[in-house]
Amino acid sequence: MRPGRGSAPCHHGELLQGFFRDSVGAARPGLVTLPSPVAGVRAEFRPSGTGTEVTVRPPGRGKAARAARLALDAVVGPATGGGLLTLHGAVPPGLGLGSSTADVVAAVRAVADAADVRIAPPTLARLAVAAEAASDPLMFEDARPRLFAQRDGDVLEVLPGGLPPLLVVGCLLDGGRPVDTPACRPPEPRPAVVATYEELRTALRAALAAGDAAGVARVATRSAQLHRTDGEVDRLLAAVDGPGVLGVQIAHSGNVAGVLLAPGDGPDAERVTAALRAAGIVPTGWFTSGGARHPRPVGALGGAW
């Protein structure tokens, strides 16, 4: 093996989250992430000549070290080899940006590069779930939206079309308090609840097929209201209500959120940013997701994203 490198993007929370029927009718946790062009993680893996331990820098990124070990087991052999894994990228953890999955995916790709092999995205998804219990679909390299079973590493549906351009004004709910993803699988909800999520799935499928940004935003807003019932979504909606706002989206596990507007920057994004500050909600910047991407960081955390 030789030194290897890998990278992975992050995301900006979800457009849809809940429980969805798979091909045999079982209800499974699933989500559709909102891509972000602003942040990501790079990894370097240097194999060692002796031992099987994977050391990670900076320390404390145990999921990435575990993923590197699983990747070594897959491409070299069980309990064979070790090395130093170095991660680069200032992605705030615990906010719902997919920082741990980005660490994991970048680590696996760096190990694969060191072994001069390619690990296909479906296999990488299973390795990611094994390393961190729940994963985001950051290992898929094309831009097609996916309904992803984050606890299993399975794609429940590749949705039609692509994400229409949306201007996303990012912010932090609940003061930006970090949130740990629960290790345990959530219990299956009542059939009526699953039926509601399936209606949103159908609506998102139709909006994506039609390139309907407003339709996507409506689904994201309703999904956010169903997922988070502590009043933070209603507070956000009240703060930014006005011309140009299509809806909001939030993270599945974390306090990052976004106000969704029609493409283009300028007065609407500036007005929303000012409204967030006036309501005591921290803005983090804005970017365009879907179509042409022109990230424009502003606010307290703009330099990190």
Automatic annotation (TrEMBL):
Is Metal-binding one of the keywords UniProt gives this record?
A: no
* Key words of the record: Kinase, Transferase
Tell me the GO molecular function terms: ATP binding; kinase activity
GHMP kinase N-terminal domain ranges (all copies): 77-133
User: By its UniProt entry, which InterPro entries does this protein fall under?
Assistant: GHMP_kinase_N_dom, Ribosomal_Su5_D2-typ_SF, Ribsml_uS5_D2-typ_fold_subgr
Keyword Chloroplast annotated: no
UniProt-listed Gene3D superfamilies: 3.30.230.10
Q: Could you tell me what this protein is called?
A: Threonine kinase
Which source organism does the UniProt entry give? Pseudonocardia ammonioxydans
